Automatic annotation (TrEMBL):
Record protein name field: GntR family transcriptional regulator
Domain of life of the source: Bacteria
InterPro entries on file: GntR_C (IPR011711), TF_FadR/GntR_C (IPR008920), Tscrpt_reg_HTH_GntR (IPR000524), WH-like_DNA-bd_sf (IPR036388), WH_DNA-bd_sf (IPR036390)
UniProt-listed SUPFAM superfamilies: GntR ligand-binding domain-like (SSF48008), Winged helix' DNA-binding domain (SSF46785)
HTH gntR-type domain boundaries: 14-81
Keywords: DNA-binding, Transcription, Transcription regulation
């Protein structure tokens, strides 16, 4: 099996709809699912050891937020956002995330702050180890962690959609591996730790602008393999 940076574990069957959805999102965060490729219910049903009905529930949920696009009799196509679509995503994120961290800087608990500091430390460990897939996933999950800390379930839902689609856009258009430059997450967390909402908002706005700049660069990059992604999906957590 292809090296993934994740310790090999015994494969199991009988995944739930929620577990399949989570696993597919993780595959996107780790940039293992290639945008524009076709994937079928039969492929996933075989990998996860479940019926097509269970897979269909998960795929339908992800299709509703634009991650997959269903074609009758052909299965699902993994979204490949255009630059125009990526710009719209980042425009919305610029409206939401600075205000989100401004509020978190005031309302966060000690436990919330420690969770963010631990996440930054884990990002740095993955970077130091050269574990690119894990680093890419963690940089995406950072933004979802902030949404979860906000305590707003609607914000979590919106940010999940935007972050997953942004990850696909980064894979298609960005020059860097993660779209999240080093130290920018740390700057946001430091401002939150200081209780400085305005600084946190400014750091987040700068961070999102940096990602927007990355998405304007058209660089040819090696595309991930659908076959290797399917093998990875079959490895249980």
């Amino acid at each position: 099996m292809e090296e993934t940076g994740i310790p090999p574990q015994k494969r199991r069957h009988g995944y739930t709809e929620q577990e399949i959805t989570r696993r597919l999102i993780e595959a996107i965060f780790e940039q293992r699912l290639p945008p524009g490729e076709r994937i079928t219910e039969n492929q996933l049903a075989d990998i996860f050891g479940v019926s097509r009905t269970v897979v269909r529930l998960s795929m339908s949920k992800l299709s509703e937020i634009g991650v997959f696009r269903k074609t009758p009799n052909l299965g699902y196509t993994i979204a490949s956002p255009s630059r125009a679509e990526a710009k719209m995503m980042l425009d919305v994120r610029k409206m939401i995330e600075p205000s989100m961290v401004r509020s978190i800087a005031v309302t966060r608990s000690a436990e919330h702050l420690q969770s963010l500091l631990d996440h930054i430390a884990t990002e740095e460990a993955a970077r130091s180890a050269g574990d690119r897939s894990t680093l890419v996933r963690l940089t995406g999950e950072f933004h979802l962690k902030l949404a979860e800390i906000s305590g707003n379930v609607y914000l979590v839902h919106i940010m999940t959609q935007l972050q997953v689609l942004t990850c696909l856009a980064i894979l298609v258009h960005a020059e860097s591996e993660t779209g999240c430059p080093r130290d920018e997450h740390s700057s946001i967390v430091n401002a939150i730790a200081q209780g400085d909402g305005e600084k946190a908002a400014a750091e987040m706005a700068h961070h999102l602008s940096h990602i927007s700049e990355e998405l304007q660069i058209n660089t040819l990059r090696p595309e991930p393999s659908l076959e290797s992604a399917l093998r990875w999906l079959g490895a249980a957590q």
